[in-house]
Amino acid sequence: FLYSYCGLCVFRKQIETGASIVTGTRYVQGGGVHGWNLMRKLTSRGANVLAQTLLWPGVSDLTGSFRLYKRAVLEDVISTCVSKGYVFQMEIIVRASRKGYHIEEVPITFVDRVYGSSKLGGSEIVEYLKGLAYLLVTT
User: Fold this and answer.
1) Coiled coil: which residue ranges (predicted)?
2) pLDDT in tens, 65-82
């Protein structure tokens, strides 16, 4: 996985804002994806819109994983997470948001892998929907 220019941006944003978590997002101005077909883009965007609508996490990209956590925050939030895979990325941000942690976003451009293939398939989508329902009930 490659992300454009965001490593320093994440650190800078954390220092400037004092955020507990800074997350790279594909879904704000300046962010995006490169190398995905239309179906993959629609799946990712749809998963995030659905989560936004049901969970109101205050973050535009719940399925991304380019993040910087303050250690104490990560230790606190991760101890309450039960999910795995794509759902874990969503759960950790939703739980941090519910606990009142300060979360900031920076735009990233995700560049698809050159070797191998995505793990995203039908079973992962079903697990994502089950995880979404679980978070809706438990948070």
Assistant:
1) none
2) 889 999 999 999 999 999
| Counted domains in the chain | 1
How are strands ordered across the β-sheet holding 67-69?
A: 67-69, 21-25, 103-107
For residue 34, give the DSSP letter. E
Confidence of residue 117 (pLDDT cuts 50, 70, 90): low
Contact in structure between 81 and 91 (CB atoms under 8 Å): yes
Handedness of CA 58, 84, 10, 113 (dihedral sign): negative
Q: Global pTM?
A: 0.83
pLDDT tens digits for range 26-49: 888 888 888 888 988 888 888 889
Helix (H, G, I), strand (E, B) or coil at 139: coil
Q: Is residue 103 classed as helix, strand or coil in its secondary structure?
A: strand
Nearest residue to 62 (alpha-carbon basis) of 31, 8, 25: 25
Task: Determine the angle formed by the axes of helices 38-55 and 122-138, rounding to 10 degrees.
Answer: 10
pLDDT score recorded for residue 2:
44
CB-count exposure of residue 135 (10 Å: 0-12, 13-18, 19+): buried
